[in-house]
Design brief:
Blueprint lengths: L6 H8 L3 H9 L6 H14 L5 H8 L4 E5 L10 H16 L3 E5 L4 H13 L5 E5 L6 H8 L4 E4 L14 E5 L1 H14 L5 E5 L5 H17 L4 H6 L1 E3 L4 H14 L5 E4 L2 H9 L6 E5 L3 H6 L2 E4 L2 H16 L14 E4 L2 E3 L13 H9 L1
Parallel strand pairs: 1-2, 1-3, 3-4, 4-5, 5-11, 6-7, 6-8, 8-9, 9-10
Antiparallel strand pairs: 10-12
Length: about 350
Amino acid sequence: MGEFPTVTDVARVAGVSRQTVSNVMNTPGIVKADTRARVEAAITALGYRPHASARRLRTRRSSTIGIRLDPMIDGISGSVLDRFLHALTEQADARGLRVLLFTATSPEDEIDQFRRLNDGADVDGFVLTSTTADDPRTAWLLEHDIAFVTFGRPWQENDFTDPSHLWVDVDGHAGLYAATRAQQDAGARRIAYIGWPSPSGTGDDRRRGWHEAMLERGDVSAEELARLEVITTDGVDQGAAAMRQLARTAGGIDAVLCASDALALGAMIANPARVSVTGYDNTPIAAAIGLSSVDQPVDEVAAGVLELLTGEFEGQVSHAPDSASPRYRMVTPRLVTRQFEAIPRDSVPANALVDEVSR
């Protein structure tokens, strides 16, 4: 045990879960009397005192939410989080809340920022983005009883309804399923997919939508379906290379779906046959060049994040495992269909096109 006892220490001594300890402190009426007595005895014996953040959540002293400002990557990949940040800031202001931005170079650095901002009573809670399986940031925040909501679900298998983890996410499976169905309804049979390496929670979720829709329709065999898929890292050049690979090995394709607009832009550049291409994220580049894309409704995501976080501030979110209190939001994306002409590879360098459209 460290210098100061934590919720985990109390839970260990009392023989209960961390969530039960939290329930005893915040909603004692839902805890059985004998269990509550054990937890209270452990709190007294250890000299545990709730963190200053927990007290601030009840008083809303700072009315400030902290969120990391992601580093600028390129004109495509970062646009969704940029749009989310704008939506979150505007909607928070309408609720009388402020958004405090900070930078971090790694999850460990972000945790250091959590500690600094929490110790200084600068924020009431945090919004996290870019979640991963076994995310050390969420584990630290849970350990220290600090309020947070993530844009992105917990990706551990069968852990999506963890009552202590509040989250909002976009249903990538539904988005790619709808995009595949739209191509099938338009007459396409051999629909290829360019996606990211697994494991990738977001990427695997999107791939499942395409894969399930293709298997359900049964237009191609499982062996043929494997040839219609190319896995690569994200980027315009990678998308172009994947499209050329499909032209060599897929035996003819009617349409291509991509895990991102960056991959889709590359596929359009290497697409002399003018096969229909659909991206994901509906970035400004997609709108500018006429690329069909799956749109992530970040306004709805921001609204869900703030609803859960302010509900946590006001004690309206129960963390009891059997509670009907909403603890997450799954937002359905929408397919935006556009007409396009394939971009000749030798007409303009891919990077120059990205730079120009991103301005």
